[in-house]
Amino acid sequence: MTNLPPPAEELRFLDAELRQLDARRAVLLRRREWLIHTLRATAAPTGWGPAGPGAVPPPRPEATGPGVQNVLLVLGGVLLTIAAIAFTLVSWGHMGITGRGLVLGALTLGALGAPLVLLRRGLRSTAEAVAGLGLALTSLDAYALYEVAFSGTDGLAYTAVASAVLAAAWAAYGVLTGALVPPAAGRPVAAEDGSATKGVRLTLRLPLPLAVGTAHLPLLLWAVAVGAGAHTLTAVLLVTASGGTALALRTGLVPVRLVAVVGALSTGAVGVLAAGGLCWTAADPGEAAQAAALLVFAAVVALLAGGFAPKADVGLGAALAAGLCVVAGVGGVLRVSVPGEWTVPGCLACALALLAVVRTPLPRPLRQGLVWASVTVQGYAVLWALPLCAGTLLGPVAGAERPWSGVPGDARDAVFTHMPWPPYATTVPLVLAALAVVLVVAERRAIQRPATAVGALVLGWAAVFVLPVVLALPYEAGLVAQGAVVLAALGYAEWARRPAAEASPLPLTALLLALVTSVHLAFLSLASEPATLGVLVALAALFGAAGFRPALGPLAAPAALGYAAALACAVGTSAGWQPHHTALLVVAVPAVAALVAARLGGGSRTTVPVEGAGAAAGVLALSLAVTDLPALALVLALCGVVAAGTALRSDRRPVGHAAAAMFLLATWVRLVAWDVTTPEAYTLPVTVPALVVGLLRRRREPAVSSWTAYGAGLAVTLLPSLLATWGDPHWTRPLLLGAASLAVTVAGARHRLQAPLLLGGGALALVALHELVPYVAQAVDALPRWVPPALAGVVLLVLGATYEQRLRDARRVREALGRLH
Q1: What is the mean pLDDT of the chain?
Q2: How far is the C-alpha of 639 from the C-alpha of 666, rounded, in Å?
Q3: How far, in Å, CA of 422 to CA of 415, rounded?
Q4: What pLDDT band is residue 11 in, cutting at 50, 70 and 90?
Q5: Which terminus of the chain has a smaller tally of CB atoms within 10 A, N or C?
Q6: What's the chain's Rg over C-alpha atoms?
Q7: What is the rounded average pLDDT of the residues 72-99?
Q8: Cβ distance 587 to 621 under 8 Å?
């Protein structure tokens, strides 16, 4: 059974459906017209029609329809606004008071009322443009009202009141517009692009953001108008920023939130910077406390904003800013309340107090932000202490150019003689020690990372390192204190090598700190001769003892050798020796290094560093002896002996080449010192050992070529001697060189060796040519001028005629030479 509604109810239902169909048909017709217009605008003519062979794809539109529409609307609104401004400024005086009010009022009401009608029809973009014109007209109304009725009042105060009224009016207009325009419920509304909207409330997006932006001005303008002081202006900025922050957290409209956030950040940043400047430039504690209260207020606002912020990153940044504001406020008060050297320690204490938030129930982003604020202040404290640490470390180096100039009054005078004393540096050790303790606690409880432990060790070392300078200890006491630091660092490096911490970087860090401190101590001791000798002896012994520990040897043993070389130089200088005499004492260091390396063997990690230190000491000895040739020859020979002894080890055979080179250089230097100019005196010491080595090698390896075995040794003597022969007018050298070349040639032919045969034969031929040259020259001078060219022509003709025979002869010679070794 079918239940039909009553006729009247069914009639109403049918009428509603017909109206719905009519509205839908109207929307579809509008959409169809818009699509046809778009297709016609984008279509391009072709030669063969849309599908013909010459069809060209239509060009892409450079702008969309809605984009063009928005540009036109904005341009129209701007032009109308300019026209209204021109009317107000230029044509205003030609009309009476009644006409002025009627014209502006009518324009304003019309511009503000038209968007309601346009929104009901779905023309949102047009409504926005007209609403912008209306809002601009309200500003002109405020200006016109000032010119007519309030021209005698203060312009800045009137601007403050007008901005507040306009902000309230624009906000009310935006809210009322959204409330008066009903949503398109049950019926579609055609939008300007041809699309249909249904069940959506169309509102204006411009008035509310504009009202929020203008609302940031009244309080500040009013404070400036009444002549408020710097503290009041700063408070106004912070209050305005807090209002914008609250609005940004409460509103759900994206444009309004964006404007509120930008306004709050800008006014808040200016307010915080102004409060910080007032706090750190205050002349008495009262002014500093007022500015600090403003910073605390800003910190509270930032914490509240971070607590309600929807994103964790925003909360972290807000808490970071809040923590820095609190520390800045405390530091500003301390600056005028306590001596200057306690300002940074006070700020550091406040920053360390912020770490207590780790145990509080605050949200995690806020706790992280406050911790980062504390870390930032701690980093600033480290930078504040850096000048004193750098000056303490580098100060003695500046005085190294005048060693043994006299014992200074105290450790501070010894370090900062050529450098200025940093201001407020007396509390640096306390700050560094506090930071080291914080890192130790963090490493034990929260941040178990190697970098944290290394940072704690470095900061603790820095605190102890600068303590003698800060306390201005006597010079000798300062040396003892730095020596104790070296000893403690070496002991900690050995203790940190316990099995539970094998992979820890602490031992290496401690060892490097010990080396740095020892270098500082060595330079610091240069002020006094006894101090220099005593410190170098102590350092050499201390690092020498530490070098026997496997963990410390790779760095401690070379350091001991370095200090031993420095001690040798200091002893020579103290005894009044010349540098080349001191070099003989320094040579003992490479000898000791060679003995230690032989004792350690090739499997120890200390062997190579020890050998490198010994080589460096040898270079130092050579540089000291370079001014005296006999001493340089002796030092070279001694270094060659050390190298030869090292080459006796099976894993150091290649060092023998260096030993041979040093022996040869020692010989040459000695010959130069004796003013020997005969080249054979320099070349024969090379040739004889080289030939002996080549002979021994060919007996062990018969397949070795004669060029490899004897070529270099023979060439070293034959070539320089040949060059000397051609410039020698006497007969002794050519005779001896010819005899030697003949012997070498005969030996090469006897044993069928290619290198002696060719080198000896070539040298013999050149010597013979040298002897025949004078006679040939005399014969040539006796012949007519045409004879040499004629003889050359004959020779060329004979060679040309017998070319094939000469090629066969050359081939046979080549084959014969190839059969030689």
Answers
A1: 81
A2: 10
A3: 12
A4: confident
A5: N
A6: 49
A7: 52
A8: yes
| Burial grade of 706 (CB within 10 A; 0-12, 13-18, 19 or more) | buried
Tokens 């984009």 correspond to 67
What are the phi and psi torsion angles at 739 (to 5°)?
-65, -45
Residue matched to tokens 């940004």? 248
Does 45 have pLDDT greater than 70?
Answer: no
Q: Who's near 194: CB < 8 A, 6+ residues apart?
A: 30, 31, 33, 34, 35
Cα 246 from Cα 385, distance rounded (Å): 41
- Per the listing, tokens 């060790």 go with 457
The DSSP call for residue 410 is B
For the record, the structure tokens of 366 come out as: 């806020």
Question: DSSP E strands: which ranges in 543-681?
Answer: none
In sequence order, what are the beta bridge partners of 196?
A: 190
Distance in angstroms (rounded) separating the CA atoms of residues 273 and 73: 41
How many other CB atoms sit within 10 Å of the CB of residue 799?
11
Amino acid at 744: V
- The residues, ordered by sequence, that sit 6+ positions from 159 with a Cβ below 8 Å of its Cβ are 217, 221
pLDDT in tens, 509-541: 999 999 999 999 999 999 889 999 999 999 999
Neighbours of 313 (CB within 10 A): 10
Cβ atoms within 10 Å of 360's Cβ, excluding its own = 10
Tokens linked to 17 = 């459906």
Q: What is the DSSP string of 17-63?
A: HHHHHHHHHHHHHHHHHHHHHHHHHH----SS-TTSTT--PPPPPSS
- Rounded CA gap, 156 and 134, in Å? 24
The token pair that represents 301 in the structure block: 């606002």
Query: Is the predicted pLDDT of residue 211 greater than 50, yes or no?
Result: yes
Amino acid identity of residue 176, one-letter, is: L
Distance CA 32, CA 23 (A): 14
Contact residues for 631 (Cβ-Cβ < 8 A; gap 6+):
580, 581, 583, 584, 625
Angle between helices 343-354 and 312-337 (to 10 degrees): 150
| Residue 649: its H or E element | none
Percent of the chain at pLDDT above 90? 35
Q: Residue 117: in which H helix or E strand, if any? A: helix 97-120
For the chain, the first-to-last Cα distance in angstroms comes to 127
Cβ–Cβ under 8 Å, residues 440 and 463: no
Q: What is the mean pLDDT of residues 682-690?
A: 78
The Cα–Cα gap between 76 and 56 comes to 37
Read off the pLDDT band of 46 (50, 70, 90): very low
Q: Is 647 exposed, middle or buried (0-12, 13-18, 19+ CB in 10 A)?
A: middle
Write the DSSP string, 737-789.
Answer: HHHHHHHHHHHHHHTT-HHHHHHHHHHHHHHHHHHHHHHHHHHHHHS-TTHHH
| Residue closest to 332 by CA, chosen among 289, 271, 376 | 289
Angle at 713 (CA atoms; ends 707, 716), nearest 5 degrees: 115
Query: Per the structure block, which two tokens stand in for 117?
Result: 């009608």
* Nearest partner of 487 among 408, 401, 546, 411, judged by Cα: 546
Residues linked to residue 197 through DSSP beta bridges, in sequence order: 189
Gap between the Cα atoms of 106 and 141, Å rounded: 11
Cβ atoms of residues 461 and 513 within 8 Å: yes
Q: Output the pLDDT for position 684.
A: 78
DSSP H/E element including 680: helix 679-700
Report H helices in 525-574: 529-546, 553-574
Phi and psi torsions of 51, nearest 5°: -110, 10
Alpha-helical runs (H) found in 309-410: 312-337, 343-354, 364-398
The rounded Cα 786 to chain-centroid distance in angstroms is 80
CA distance 145 to 235: 31
Is residue 270 within 8 Å of 253, Cβ to Cβ?
no
CA atoms within 13 A on the CB side of 653: 2
* Tokens found for residue 636: 């070279």
